[in-house]
Amino acid sequence: MKVHNVEMVISAVRPDQYPEDGLPEFALAGRSNVGKSSFINRMIGRKALARISSKPGKTQTLNFYKIEEQLFFVDVPGYGYAKVSKSEREAWGKMIERYLTGRHELKAVVQIIDLRHPPTADDRMMYDFLKHYNIPCIIIATKADKIPKGKWDKHKKIVKETLDMEKGDPLIVFSSETGLGFEEAWRIIESKM
Ligand code: GDP
């Protein structure tokens, strides 16, 4: 998709604040600092629409970006940030869980992981959660530019094994730096709209 028009519609914490357009939604989830904002910005062709986090784990709202009047990207606050309190984490969990499990417009979760390292326990928990609730997911393994191309396959294999990924789930090697994976990511998202 060629993106010209993006509008940040709302930061929501409760269902009554979600948009009512009925457009398909794609939630973006990932560990703090994994490269989620950079992924969003690359996909929508902006330098800094989705704020690149200076304080990891700071955004605690669901941010709805309307794209080309056709779909929403829903930026979910990063998980696994060690410095938030237990009560903050619980509030986070409830808000996300309510959205992910109860939102009819949600077509898939785009889960961002770091291709360089095996998925963490938090990454696994998120993936297992999606599987448990039968929520379609697309795995984006980003920061691919940081490792040599010859190692991508080996790292992909580690990602698949560590998450115990289902065969049909897409795994896309991505780089927000170079734009690698951009076309493929859009193709898969559009196929699920
Ligand atoms: P977020 O907390 O998940 O939203 O992560 P950010 O998008 O803010 O990225 C965290 C850091 O990783 C920033 O310094 C980015 O510039 C860097 N980064 C993100 N994606 C990539 C990538 O694909 N390649 C490289 N080399 N750096 C990246």
UniProtKB/TrEMBL annotation:
Task performed by this protein: Necessary for normal cell division and for the maintenance of normal septation.
Annotated PROSITE patterns: G_ENGB
Single GO BP term: division septum assembly
Organism: Lysinibacillus macroides
Keywords, sorted A to Z: Cell cycle, Cell division, GTP-binding, Magnesium, Metal-binding, Nucleotide-binding, Septation
Family affiliation: Belongs to the TRAFAC class TrmE-Era-EngA-EngB-Septin-like GTPase superfamily. EngB GTPase family.
GO cellular component: cytosol
Name of the molecule in the record: Probable GTP-binding protein EngB
Highest taxon listed in the record's lineage: Bacteria
InterPro entries assigned to the protein according to its UniProt record, in alphabetical order: G_ENGB_dom (IPR030393), GTP-bd (IPR006073), GTP-bd_ribosome_bio_YsxC (IPR019987), P-loop_NTPase (IPR027417)
HAMAP family: GTPase_EngB
Domain EngB-type G: 22-193
Cofactor(s) needed: Mg(2+)
Pfam families the UniProt entry points to: MMR_HSR1
GO molecular function terms listed in the Swiss-Prot or TrEMBL record: GTP binding; metal ion binding
